[in-house]
What we know:
Blueprint: H1 11-21, H2 33-40, E1 43-44, H3 48-58, H4 65-75, E2 79-83, E3 89-93, H5 97-122, H6 128-145, H7 150-156, E4 163-166, E5 174-177, H8 178-188, E6 192-197, E7 206-210, H9 219-234, H10 239-246, H11 250-259, E8 263-267, E9 270-274, E10 290-293, H12 315-318, E11 328-331, E12 334-341, E13 347-351, H13 359-376, H14 388-394
Helix pairs in contact: 5-8, 5-9, 9-11
Amino acid sequence: MNDAGRRHIGTAERRHRLALRQRLAGAARAGSPEEIADSLVALHGTDPAAVHLAVGARLADATKTVGETERALYEDGALVRMHGMRHTVFVFPTGLTAVVHASTGRTVAARERARLLKNMAAAGAPDAAWLTEVEESALAALARRGQATAAELARDEPRLKEQYVYAAGKSYEGVHTVSTQLLRVLGVEGKVVRGRPLGSWTSSQFRWAPAPDHPELDPGEAQAELLRRWLTACGPATEDDLKWWTGWRVTEVRRALTAIGAEAVSLDEGTGYVVSGDTGPVAGPAEPWAALLPALDPTAMGWQQRDWYLAPELRPMLFDRSGNVGPTVWWNGRVVGGWAQRADGEIVWRILDDEGLGREAESAIAAEAERLASWVGTARITPRFRTPLERELSA
């Protein structure tokens, strides 16, 4: 206990929790993509390949990664790719759609629609009534088709092809197409989601699909539920972690913490929070473990304060300038290096932090690289946001 009477959860125990609750230790691996998504709450979905790679790292039978993930996303509808926290695309369990939309989507959606109308008005484009007509027509066409690309929808609703100049006269002036901007807003509003892509599982050429039906929830209740789920998977976490991950104001974070009866604990960084009843000690996995996680993996990107699993001196090589993490190599709960795929398909990796590593660690990491290569097969993976080490290794 610390001076405030709170239990202290140190770095070693936080890594134990990460190994088990993030499904990374060998014995903690899951049997399906649905189980993984439910455990982690959300998988980063901006990079299509990253979703499959994140699942493959946690699936007991990695050979089923592509087929099972595509089944869950595009056949059974158990998972859905949609906008969520911080205006980022994630893959969620479909049952969480209403919670995500009410807790984070509505506020962002109102802002994004207002911005679109403002930009169109500044460019002399048609007004809000015109945009509403186009929107209703496009949604009707999407309902008829089931799923479609923006180009396919534009054949049904030609006004989607109209363009307008954004920020005329500015250094960042550009030409925007109505379809691109409108579908983006409809995604944030929870009216459309990303469907099956054209091409393979690594393709970023997505079709659009109608969003699954969901009830409209009270925002405060939805925020409490989302925070409860995330803290169960990722606790303990600080207020700064929670504010960063959700994109909420600090007042919203504190209100949700109170609503779920979160318990305060002591961390090396200060005060942290866990869900009620989760202050007890957590033993680590029975066996040491290694993992190769993809760019934008939800574990690597899960917390704003990362020193307990990622040494600050490693960040320049593993992150891009916008703060997106690249492919990482893990050993027993901490990042020790990075990996990449070369043009011939070889998975290569490099240790950047060898403190405490020995022959066992190197053998385990090499085995994970072979495991990854075995199910990736002939696919070629280039992260959407490239980092210095990934570029160097892939070359």
